[in-house]
């Protein structure tokens, strides 16, 4: 199946906040995401969709600060999971980071989210900090870290 990854548009936002709630149980909300898309140099939002029919597959938001970045809210919607789209999104994200000379990347993941941890580990991310009772339901978070490049 051919897919594309593109910048998020303002017209995507209602769909994004709906899926944020389904996939993550929380959302930054329409107003803040729109503000980030319109104004923020720090936040980049990307959407994956099927090339022909434009079915929404997933999204990610990236926080960028000079040569450091954080991956936030990556998800692939249920019907498309387990089909390597997570890998495809991560390939894109790492390629994007390399293109803008990012050197250090962090992300937070639920400690019991083994699928996501496996995905991130396959790109070289290492768990560096365990944050106890981090989420509202009491689950721990792992802070994961990746260094890109050698210097
Ligand atoms: C985590 C997520 C993005 C992975 O996307 P995906 O498209 O389903 O994953 P892929 O098919 O590309 O598989 C990527 C890797 O995830 C892991 N994985 C996928 N399905 C798995 C399963 N059922 N069991 C264990 N590991 C699994 C594997 O490491 C796999 O790599 P491999 O196929 O080379 O072994 C997706 O499952 C998701 O959106 N989950 C809900 C939201 C979420 O947890 N987001 C992460 C927040 S930090």
Write the layout of secondary structure elements.
Elements: E1 3-7, H1 13-24, H2 30-39, E2 43-50, E3 56-65, E4 68-76, H3 85-99, E5 104-110, H4 114-121, E6 126-131, E7 141-147
Parallel strand pairs: 4-5
Antiparallel strand pairs: 1-2, 2-3, 3-4, 5-7, 6-7
The protein binds coenzyme A.
Explain what you see:
The protein has helices at residues 13-24, 30-39, 85-99, 114-121, and strands at residues 3-7, 43-50, 56-65, 68-76, 104-110, 126-131, 141-147. With 151 residues, it is α+β, with helices and mostly antiparallel strands. It has a single domain, classed as Aminopeptidase (3-Layer(aba) Sandwich). Strands 1-2-3-4-5-7-6 form a seven-stranded mixed β-sheet, with helices on both faces. 20% of the residues are buried. The model has no long low-confidence stretch (mean pLDDT 96). The structure holds coenzyme A. Residues 23, 74-76, 81-87, 109, 113-116, 118-119, 122 line the site of coenzyme A.
Summarize the structure.
30% of the residues lie in helices and 34% in strands. The protein is of the alpha+beta class and 151 residues long. It has a seven-stranded mixed sheet with strand order 1-2-3-4-5-7-6, with helices on both faces.
How many H/I helices? Answer: 4
Characterize the main sheet.
Answer: 7 strands, mixed
Report, as a whole number of angstroms, the end-to-end distance.
38 Å
**What value does the Rg take, in angstroms?**
15 Å
Helix coverage percent of residues? 25-40%
Unreliable parts: none
CATH superfamily descriptor = Gcn5-related N-acetyltransferase (GNAT)
Tell me which ligands are bound. coenzyme A
Order of helices and strands: EHHEEEHEHEE
Report strand %.
25-35%
CATH topology: Aminopeptidase
Q: Structural class, judged by helices and strands?
A: alpha+beta
Average of pLDDT:
96
Numbering strands along the chain, what is their spatial order in the largest sheet? 1-2-3-4-5-7-6
Number of folding domains? 1
CATH class: Alpha Beta
Q: How would you describe the shape? A: globular
CATH hierarchy: architecture: 3-Layer(aba) Sandwich
